[in-house]
Amino acid sequence: MKRSIPALVLTVLMAVAAPADAKPLSGMISTDGSSSMEKVIGSLGEAFENEHRKVKFTYNPTGSGAGIAAAREGRCDIGLASRDLKEEEKNFGLTATVLAYDGIAVIVNPHNPVKNLTLVDLANIYTGKVVNWKEVGGQDSTIVLIGREAGSGTRDGFESVTNTRDACKYRQELTSTGDVITTVSQNPAAIGYASLASVKKSVRPVSIEGVAPSEKSVKDGSYKVQRPFVLVTVEGRELSPAAQAFFDYITSPAASRIISAAGAVPAH
User: Fold this and answer.
1) What would the mean pLDDT of 54-67 be, rounded to a whole number?
2) How much is the pTM?
3) Which homologous superfamily does the CATH classification assign to the domain defined by 102-226?
4) Quick one: which of 160, 175, 148, 174 has its CA closest to 64?
5) Fold type of domain 7-101+227-266
6) pLDDT bracket for residue 17 (50, 70, 90)
7) Sign of CA pseudo-dihedral 35, 215, 254, 239
8) DSSP at 211
C-alpha cells in the first residue's frame, strides 16, 4: 500500500507515539476480510507503519465471511467485516468492535424535485418496479438508474441495505464514485449512490425515510442506508503487542481523521 499520508494526519499520529525511552514496537499485524474496508483499513495500516517503522501491516481482501472465519481459526490477528456478526458466529466466541460506519448517499440531479424516498421506494426503483419519477412524486420522466460495477464495496453496501442484490436494473454500471456523481449531475432523470464523504454540490442527496444523510445521522443510526465496518477478534485470545497497539490506535479518537478521509464515519 503506497498511499501518501497528509502532514496533518501524521501530526495527529504523534499524539499516540510511544514515549522516547520506550522500546520500538515491532512485529507483524495481519488483517483479513471485507474488501469494502480496503480504503479505511489500508489508510490506517499505512499510517501505523509510518509511525512504527519496525511493524509490518498486511491486509487480505477475502470478503467478510472469510475474514470472520480467519479470525476464528487464528489465521489473522484481526478479522474485518462490513456487517454485524451473526448469532452463530458470536457463539464461537467472536467479538465485534465497530470501527466505523459506511454511509451511502442516494443522489439525484439538483433539478429533480424529489427530496425524500423510502427504502421500499429505493428497492422498487432499482429493481424496475417503479420506472417513472412521477410514481414517487417527481416529474413525468423515465428514471435512469446509475450504479457501481460488480465487486464495488459501495454497490455491495447499497444492495445489501435495500435487499436488491443481483436484482438491480442498472442503465450504467460505473467504475468510480466520481463517475457516478458526474453522470447524475449531467442527467435530470438519473439517480445514483455514492459514499457520503464524496458527495459534491453538483448533485443532491435525498432523505431516506425522512432523514437526510450526514455524519451525525449515520452515527446515530437514523439514516438507514449504511452498514458497520467491524473488527473481529476472539474473546479471551490475546493479540500480539503490535496487533493490540494497532487495535487500540484505530479504535481511538486519534484515528478519526484518517477514517473520515477514507470516506467512512468514525465510531469513536
Assistant:
1) 93
2) 0.71
3) Periplasmic binding protein-like II (3.40.190.10)
4) 160
5) D-Maltodextrin-Binding Protein; domain 2 (3.40.190)
6) very low
7) negative
8) B
